[in-house]
Write a structure and sequence with these properties.
4-stranded antiparallel sheet; transmembrane helix; 14 helices; Rhopdopsin 7-helix transmembrane proteins; 2 domains; about 50% helix
Length: about 500
């Protein structure tokens, strides 16, 4: 299977050329005001529990300073979606003074300012702050988290909500209350935390504390499936050692790729619990391995549907098969990269609501039809009862694996953004895990010996039996294929 390895190397090479943006909840870095605008994070804060308000509120806190003292400043903005859309949409105006005025046009009437609007909401901070001191806009030092220069306290009693954190090179004139572009370049260093729970308390839940609401409790999913694969993978390795067969080897490769992808994601998420960053590169590698696992598994299903290594050692239309498989894999990688780099942060959509997503769904539906036609043709000319039973069970389980993705993608349109990611992740991992378990059962050596074409045989009578049951030999016994599917004998 040299094409498999070629595709894998191609994917890894292609991926290495793309810079993937990975978000964290512990934000560290530098920003130059000459860049005008810098988006930092989109974070989902949970609904506040009235009975445990302080423990279930959201917090944004940290330090933001400059290496040199300056009288000029920019603005740190923490906004919910209602105010963020207008602010974000005007950032590309060429005249930056006009851009600042447009971006803060709506916010000027609602955001707190000690000189211009002292009854507003706590959305903005003047940055940088002086080293070792609280930010200028912090008028309640007792509310600031220890060792921090600023603190935002997020409380929502109605529902979870996304908040957007950004830096912009704009300042408000305290005399005229008008917004202007910051005329000087300032190097700003920031160290910001976004959390669900009280950072001053030691009783917060570590499994949700660092996570945006839409990603909370995903670590449990990773742990459950990791434990399942931790048992399944050694069993399959035992099977492939016991029975050296191309089908078993290809399936084992797919299963190991899935296990490694899950392991890398689990390690990254467990690190994320501790520091709010995780191992972004490792998580990306895990996602790529997961994609390679699914594309390899899809190839295995197509090969078995054509009867490879079960009814025949060779099959027709090899270039077409591998071309379709390769295109599907490339589009899958394209979808992954597109979702990470091209989807605008304000869009509450999942990966299957983009044009690469729709393309991969169309391809998958076409492959489903092709799979069924190939399986029907293979079964039509097969007369071995044990092999027919295998194809029946294989076809049913493979069809479930094929069709779950289009169905889930359509259902995701109806699911609120806060629950969509967890739904897609849970169903995807469940369907993959079920498919791997069923395939492990079907390909277990004591069962597969009944229908695999083995490379070495010890008894010549076995070859005669195989010949008598071959597709080109008429079998006088009863067949599992309905009579209307049988070819009439022409004499």
């Amino acid at each position: 299977m040299e094409v498999v390895f070629f595709q894998n190397y191609f994917f890894l090479y292609f991926f290495s050329l793309v810079i993937i943006s990975v978000q964290s909840t512990h934000l560290q870095g530098t920003w130059d005001t000459s860049d005008f605008f810098m988006f930092l994070s989109k974070f989902g804060f949970q609904k506040t529990d009235l009975h445990r308000e302080k423990e279930t509120d959201g917090y944004i806190f940290g330090n933001i300073t400059s290496r040199s003292n300056t009288s000029y400043h920019g603005t740190l903005a923490v906004l919910n979606r209602d105010y963020f859309l207008e602010y974000y949409g005007n950032r590309f105006i060429f005249d930056k003074d006009k851009a600042c005025a447009k971006m803060f046009n709506k916010l000027s009437t609602v955001a707190y300012d000690p000189y211009c609007y002292d009854e507003g909401y706590d959305f903005l901070r003047k940055v940088p702050c002086l080293k070792g001191e609280l930010c200028e806009d912090e008028d309640s030092p007792q509310n600031v988290v220890k060792h921090s220069q600023f603190t935002y306290h997020i409380r929502d009693l109605s529902e979870p909500r996304f908040w957007y954190v950004s830096l912009v090179s704009c300042y408000r004139n305290s005399t005229t209350c008008q917004w202007h572009h910051t005329p000087h370049n300032i190097q700003i260093e920031y160290d910001i935390w976004l959390v669900n729970g009280n950072p001053n308390s030691s009783n917060y839940n570590p499994l949700v504390y660092q996570f945006s609401f839409d990603r909370q409790n995903t670590i449990e999913l990773y742990l459950v499936f990791f434990l399942i694969y931790f048992v399944l993978v050694p069993l399959q390795i035992f099977a492939v050692v016991r029975q050296q067969h191309p089908v078993t080897r290809l399936f084992t490769a797919s299963l190991i790729l899935e296990f490694l992808g899950l392991l890398f994601n689990l390690i990254s998420v467990m690190k994320f619990v501790v520091d709010g960053v995780g191992y972004p590169k490792l998580a990306v590698i895990g996602d790529v391995l997961d994609i390679l696992s699914r594309t390899t598994f899809m190839l295995l299903l197509l090969l078995l549907a054509k009867g490879w290594a079960v009814t025949r050692q060779e099959f027709t239309w090899k270039p077409l098969l591998f071309s379709v498989w390769f295109i599907y894999g490339v589009v899958h990688i394209l979808l992954f990269v597109w979702n990470k780099t091209e989807v605008d942060i304000i869009e509450d959509i999942d990966e299957y609501q983009t044009w690469p997503g729709w393309l991969i769904l169309v391809l998958r539906c076409l492959i489903i039809v092709w799979f069924l036609l190939e399986l029907r043709t293979t079964m039509r000319y097969e007369h071995n009862e044990s092999k027919l039973n295998f194809f029946l069970h294989f076809g049913a389980s493979a069809l479930v694996w094929y069709i779950y993705l289009p169905i889930v993608a359509l259902l995701a349109l109806l699911i609120p953004p806060f629950w969509r990611y967890k739904l897609l992740l849970g169903i995807t991992y469940s369907a993959d895990c079920l498919a791997y378990c069923v395939m492990t059962h079907l390909l277990w050596p004591t069962r597969s010996e009944q229908y695999f074409l083995l490379a070495h045989r010890g008894d010549a009578s076995d070859e005669l039996d195989e010949f008598n049951e071959a597709p080109h030999v008429l079998n006088s016994g009863e067949s599992l294929i309905p009579s209307w599917d049988k070819n009439p004998l022409i004499t």
